[in-house]
Amino acid sequence: MSAIGPVPVRCVGGILHDQVGRLLLVRRANDPGRGLWSIPGGRVEPGETDSVALVREMREETGLVVRPGALVGHVVRGRYEIHDYTCEVEGGSLQAGDDAAEVRWVDEATFAALALTDGLADTLRGWQMLPRC
């Protein structure tokens, strides 16, 4: 830890809607947020760009191959600086893996009923990225 505080950990997240407007969420298998639902993503490893990290993390957590899109926004949660991007599916098969205990497409009603990571609903609402059905 330096005199000006800990160095933030750069992370990426993938915001992905299906053709009917459902949002892809994962239930986290590890801390922080174990057991809570969030968008898939994780740490950017040394030497990776955000795009490369996002493709890797989405594949590891969801089984899907994605094409990263635009940066939607970023948030700071503790020591994590998370940059969230839209994504489009290019291939793969949906299945929970790596840090995800479960993965699923959720509609508005399901989203509202899930135990979400802190600030997720408000952040996605502010970015107009909530489920659309």
UniProtKB/TrEMBL annotation:
<dbReference type="InterPro" id="IPR015797">
    <property type="entry name" value="NUDIX_hydrolase-like_dom_sf"/>
</dbReference>
<dbReference type="Pfam" id="PF00293">
    <property type="entry name" value="NUDIX"/>
</dbReference>
<dbReference type="InterPro" id="IPR000086">
    <property type="entry name" value="NUDIX_hydrolase_dom"/>
</dbReference>
<dbReference type="GO" id="GO:0016787">
    <property type="term" value="F:hydrolase activity"/>
</dbReference>
<feature type="domain" description="Nudix hydrolase">
    <location>
        <begin position="7"/>
        <end position="130"/>
    </location>
</feature>
<dbReference type="InterPro" id="IPR020084">
    <property type="entry name" value="NUDIX_hydrolase_CS"/>
</dbReference>
<comment type="similarity">
    <text>Belongs to the Nudix hydrolase family.</text>
</comment>
<keyword id="KW-0378">Hydrolase</keyword>
<dbReference type="InterPro" id="IPR020476">
    <property type="entry name" value="Nudix_hydrolase"/>
</dbReference>
<protein>
    <submittedName>
        <fullName>ADP-ribose pyrophosphatase YjhB (NUDIX family)</fullName>
    </submittedName>
</protein>
